[in-house]
Design a protein that fits this description.
Blueprint: H1 2-10, H2 21-41, H3 46-72, H4 82-92, H5 95-104, H6 109-124
Helix pairs in contact: 2-3, 2-5, 2-6, 3-4, 4-6
Length: 142
């Protein structure tokens, strides 16, 4: 189960899949600069503030859909509820984190993508059993 679920976070898929890393990297490469300007304008411009809040709310809701999908598959880390997992994924995937790591620290987009996939999986997903995840792959092993 862990291998399939990790792949859903790390690899591309349909728009409602938790296949976030490549898609979110591509999106951030296109819009991070605009979001930075909008975020900077929000404290001094009511329209910019309203748009920034809407973007944040929609983005959080999108992360929640991903987490709810993982929860339905019983793939969340034990003890992690949907609300907390959504907070974690929202934070890791937030454009501000991209701007810090890629814009300020000099990471490549590919380095960010790998970090995001690895960190999101480690923080949100259930760990595989010690002997691997073959028993959870839906087959009987034959």
């Amino acid at each position: 189960m862990r291998r399939r679920t990790r792949a859903e976070i790390a690899d591309p898929g349909d728009s409602h899949s938790p296949s976030a890393a490549p898609r979110t990297r591509s999106c951030k490469q296109r819009i991070a600069g605009v979001l930075k300007v909008l975020r900077s304008a929000a404290p001094v411009d009511p329209d910019a503030e309203a748009l920034w809040r809407l973007i944040q709310s929609d983005f959080y809701d999108n992360q929640r859909v991903i987490v709810e999908s993982l929860h339905a598959k019983k793939a969340l880390r034990p003890g992690l509820d949907v609300a907390r997992a959504t907070d974690i994924l929202w934070t890791l995937n937030h454009p501000d984190v991209w701007l810090l790591l890629v814009g300020e620290c000099g990471w490549t987009p590919e380095q960010w993508e790998r970090w995001f996939a690895d960190t999101a999986c480690a923080q949100v997903l259930r760990r595989p059993p010690p002997d691997g995840d073959a028993a959870d792959d839906g087959t009987d092993g034959s």
